[in-house]
Design a protein that fits this description.
It holds the Pfam family FUN14. Keywords: Membrane, Mitochondrion, Mitochondrion outer membrane, Nucleus, Phosphoprotein, Transcription, Transcription regulation, Transmembrane, Transmembrane helix. Belongs to the FUN14 family. Helices cover 73% and strands 0% of the residues. The chain is mainly α. It has one domain. α3 crosses α6.
Length: 147
């Protein structure tokens, strides 16, 4: 029995990106710093606008989350007080103590895994290379949280 061999076209992304300047500009490993691509004012505007949007969204989500948690806690207290639910406080205390012990155990082993450490190092390098963009983002984020 003869095996028919299908011919497949393989897309070589390295070769593809060499022929596409816009693709190379966006995804090229040498594109590292935004300081090479944009002037200071553009970096500040981009960082400020994205930071403000992020801060504004965080503020709105934070208020919604706080309202939901507070409202849920309030409803649980009313239900407990009126007798709809019964809370086993000894069980809650035991679970909280168990959680405290777990936190102490994990914080005593203060070592980061190599994968996490390498990611943190990558982020620090990116932030150092793009310090103007990072500063604009931080300022915009604070303004977004305040508005």
């Amino acid at each position: 029995a003869g095996v028919k061999e299908d011919s497949l076209n393989v897309l070589d992304l390295a070769e593809y990106t060499k022929n596409r300047p816009w693709w190379r500009k966006v995804f090229s490993p040498s594109s590292g710093s935004s300081a090479e691509k944009y002037n200071v004012a553009t970096q500040l505007v981009i960082g400020g606008v994205t930071g403000w949007c992020t801060g504004f969204i965080f503020q709105k989500v934070g208020k919604l989350a706080a309202t939901a948690v507070g409202g849920g806690f309030f409803l649980l207290q009313i239900a407990n007080h009126t007798g709809y639910i019964k809370v086993d406080w000894k069980l809650v205390e035991r679970d909280v103590n168990k959680a405290k012990q777990q936190l102490k155990f994990h914080s005593s082993r203060n070592k980061m895994s190599p994968e996490v450490k390498s990611r943190v190092d990558e982020v620090i390098i990116f932030l150092k290379k793009n310090i103007i963009l990072t500063g604009g983002f931080a300022g915009g984020f604070l303004l977004g949280m305040a508005s």
